[in-house]
Design a protein that fits this description.
two-stranded antiparallel ribbon; 34% helix; homodimer; 13 helices
Chain lengths: 387, 387
Amino acid sequence: MSDIVIAGIGQTEVGEHWEISLRELGVDALHAAVKDSGGLRPQALFVGNMLAPSLSRQAHVGALIADYAGYVGIEAVTVEAAGASGGAALHQAYLAIASGLVDVALVLGVEKFTDKIGPDVDEALASASDSDYEAMQGLTTTAQAALIMRRYMHEFDVPADGFAGFPLVAHANGAGNPYAMFQKAIKPETYAKAEFVSEPLNMFDVAPNADGAAALLLTRPDLLPKDFGHPLVRIAASTVSSDTLALHDRPDPLAFSAAHISVERALQKAGLTLDAIDFFEYHDAFSIYSALSLEAAGFAPRGAGWKLAADGSIGLQGRIPAATLGGLKARGNPGGASGIYQAVEAALQLRGEAGKNQLPAARTALIQSLGGPASTAAAHILSRLEG
Amino acid sequence: MSDIVIAGIGQTEVGEHWEISLRELGVDALHAAVKDSGGLRPQALFVGNMLAPSLSRQAHVGALIADYAGYVGIEAVTVEAAGASGGAALHQAYLAIASGLVDVALVLGVEKFTDKIGPDVDEALASASDSDYEAMQGLTTTAQAALIMRRYMHEFDVPADGFAGFPLVAHANGAGNPYAMFQKAIKPETYAKAEFVSEPLNMFDVAPNADGAAALLLTRPDLLPKDFGHPLVRIAASTVSSDTLALHDRPDPLAFSAAHISVERALQKAGLTLDAIDFFEYHDAFSIYSALSLEAAGFAPRGAGWKLAADGSIGLQGRIPAATLGGLKARGNPGGASGIYQAVEAALQLRGEAGKNQLPAARTALIQSLGGPASTAAAHILSRLEG
């Protein structure tokens, strides 16, 4: 199989875009990615989106955005896997290029929380959980994360400020990202004094829902001109795994097993071990997700993921830098678009274009995009294509 | 590229299943397809579904159903392209097998109209159109089809009963399909006396929304035992194309251009001309869609598609049999599942298992799955694998 590369990236600022429609956000990111690629013409569009059918009463987003972007007629579909919609859409595009049937594919992650036509946001988000057995009983995504965090703290004797490092690192890194929703570092005492959202989660343990769109252009390197304008990012592996939606039906609610499987398979396919990973873009929708993701990937043993935040390991100068441009917490969490933002940010690091947050020797990245508490997990390994 | 075959098919009866949940419907169809394949173990699941996030407040259907079917851990996503979700999901599974990265893939189409948690059905269905410029103004999918039909009748001088042949053939064929919602032929005078739903569409011009699930198991023939139990159906081509959602923005509202492009590309990829097609499973959500699909595929010139219904050409003994097991009209229209029902029915014909409706020499089928008025069009060419 030929290499598959990211030859174009684009993103919009993350925030509350009351004045910009879903389609406009999407088209802006797509056009930025196409421009970045030097104007390659796509044959297919894979849209990662979770909430448009409920919040915006707009299904059929693939065809809608293909048309508005000026690509009427191309193959276009929406890929949905809750919060992992972005990672899952990237995976479909990867399969399309790998099949040899598509030469140039666009991947778009787009989400618009400020559309208020449908149900309220908590109700729409809860559709990522088991509707009949969880959401129907009133369990929100945030309350579910709080239950997991409480159990984790009990099981592993984690102190009250044990998770503080996750938002502290995220906000410190967000300060270096001009596209981030929050571009300001926070202090430990700010975290300590923050109000609870759903105890033990305080407001800094929860990534903010936000509007945004990010896009990638995928192709094969042999289709590009020799004097291509910027370094290419190779997709060394792309995997998706699933887990039981209903938390009470899992043998172990403190193990993100789909996350574990997806990373293990990705490393295997890339022919790498975890030592080769220079940084980790995890899905920090909640601080507890970050801890469990670090454990699932193998960066920390069970029950010790939180220590990597507490001891500085995930900082830009740490052993395994994470959320290097702010993560979901500081960049913002635009639902199904988050997985594509992660890929854009990893690509910036690998291209050496991450500005103030540039990692000195970033060669290989691991990305983990999650839907619910890792009910779906997409893993991607990206590396700088030398040569 | 190796051949890609349908090695297993499954379906549930189409109807109003108030007592069966979305997940149960889906699992029943999946298990039937796996059993039909002799028990092959899937690595991936592609779910075509349109309405669960709105009507059932259940997103994340891929992971949900993978788990309930007993395949926790496998790759699972939902693919959405409105009414073409089934055809689009089949296309993703085809790409996955073609990539060489997946050996055995399940495709499920599932839809549950009788879940009444979210908005009403008309509002949910209208999300397939342009929400900002069409649905928001009160235009339903049915009203939109009525506008297209009125224009078509005016433009091409079609008599009031010009479309009668479409439902007459569908209901005649539904009588031979034990899974169909309506298994009874209707008479011309029944059509003539039927009440209007949205003039000029009468109730027989509109396929009934219904619950249902249908599934396919895809793999490569070299992975199957030599003594495999039934004939294999080869996917000779799989394409998806898109068109402008907003009807008023199309240069010609009476041309299903995405349908045309998808069929043209499919024939090209299969190395066939239209003469090779033995029967056509079209997307007869509305009689007018059938006429325009016949024209888009090339079976009739512009403005003459309706005549193939009037002159008997689409009957089982006709020149180009269509809706051979009842179509969306008589089998029922389970939204995103319709495209998979079409594939199951075409496979039954090609395997010689279509019972009373068996076509004598069915070797090659064309399937067209549409989202909205062909805003998305998926085309598949299936053929009986000889040898």
